[in-house]
TrEMBL record:
Family affiliation: Belongs to the ribose 5-phosphate isomerase family.
The protein's name in its UniProt record: Ribose-5-phosphate isomerase A
Pfam family, any one: Rib_5-P_isom_A
One GO term of the biological process aspect: D-ribose metabolic process
Catalytic activity: aldehydo-D-ribose 5-phosphate = D-ribulose 5-phosphate
Gene: rpiA
Keyword rRNA processing: no
GO molecular function, one term: ribose-5-phosphate isomerase activity
CDD domains assigned to the protein according to its UniProt record, in alphabetical order: RPI_A
SUPFAM superfamilies the UniProt entry points to: D-ribose-5-phosphate isomerase (RpiA), lid domain (SSF75445), NagB/RpiA/CoA transferase-like (SSF100950)
Residues that, per the record, bind substrate: T33, G34, S35, T36, D89, G90, A91, D92, K102, G103, G104, G105, K129
UniProt keyword annotations, A-Z: Isomerase
UniProt-annotated catalytic positions: E111 (proton acceptor)
Amino acid sequence: MPMDLSPIDKAKFVAAKRAVDYVEDGMRVGLGTGSTAAWMVRCLGEIIREEGLNITGVPTSSRTADLARNVGINVISLDEAKWLDLTIDGADEFDADLNLIKGGGGALLQEKIVATASDRMIVIADVAKEVAALGAFPLPVEVIPFGWQTSKALIEETLVNMDVLGQNTTLRMNGDTPFVTDEGNYILDLHLRRISNARQLSLVMNQVPGVVENGLFLDICDVVVIGGGDGTVEVRDINEGTVEQDKMDFTESDNLFADL
Ligand SMILES: O=C(CO)[C@H](O)[C@H](O)COP(=O)(O)O
């Protein structure tokens, strides 16, 4: 662990490092997408190298697949794995019930399928991701490119009918062109400010023609591992009802990730 990392990267690192403690020999593990998940993939590669574990990874994006292969993780598709023991992924927001907004990195569709196909989902996050109510982070909704403007108009009309705050919807861009997901779709970001009925919103969004999936992950996450920039780690298990706190010592770390 390089000592010159920013506090936010230290937070992501300690959350990731603690989460890979849940990985056991022989497991099939869903590999999330995003900067926090990238730390987890690196940590997993490290324990595979050091402890000789037999771990198979199912990545949730082409980015994660590339990184996983680079760090020596055996990568297979979800269809090859069929079912997973565990998925570890980041999140854009989580609330007290461990409901999430995901998709800030544009991989929500594969992330949701992989997490849902897992016995357990662990979210790794820095402390800033915890919210009292979901919705300050724009809700990503993946739509097919055909007729996306119609889907956008239908979403906006639906939000007005539902009396949802802040109905501003934007097409995610990548420079001058629309951002395209691994599945060839577009993403609409819904600027809602506060989501008061996530379950209803999720159901209604997925009924709009052209919508493939939305970034609300409800009743999917089992455990959240929250990292702090000072090395503190909190693990909350929603099923067990337990909260554990720990502190990781940065001085014990080395430069294992410097070559990546
Ligand atoms: O959902 C995601 C990607 O689709 C990410 O997990 C989410 O955006 C968090 O990313 P980061 O760890 O970089 O903050």
